[in-house]
Amino acid sequence: MVAIELSSENLDVPLPSLKKTIRRYDIDWLRVILFGLLIPFHVAIGIYWSTYGAEINPNIEEIRDKNELEFIDESNDYSAESVTFTSMILHWMHQWRLAALFMISGMGTAFAFKSRTWKTFLKERSKRLLIPMFFGAWTMGFVGSIILGDEKLEPMSLSISFLEGIVWRSLVFWIPIFGKLIALGHLWFLWNLFQYSLFMTPIFHYLSKNPEGDMARFVQSFFTIPMFIGVLLILPLVLSITEILFKPWFPGYIGVGYEWFWFFVFFAFGYICIIAKEHYYNILESQRLNITVITLLLTLIFIWIRLEQHRTGIPYIDGGWLLENGIVHDKMTIFACLIHSFHAWFWCLTIFSWGSFFLNKPSKNLAYLNQGVYPFYIVHMPLTFAGLRLSTDFGLKNYPAILFSTLFVLFSCWIFFEVVRRNKVTRFLFGIKEKKIKG
Question: For residue 239, which of 262, 264, 268 has the smallest C-alpha distance?
Answer without folding.
Answer: 262
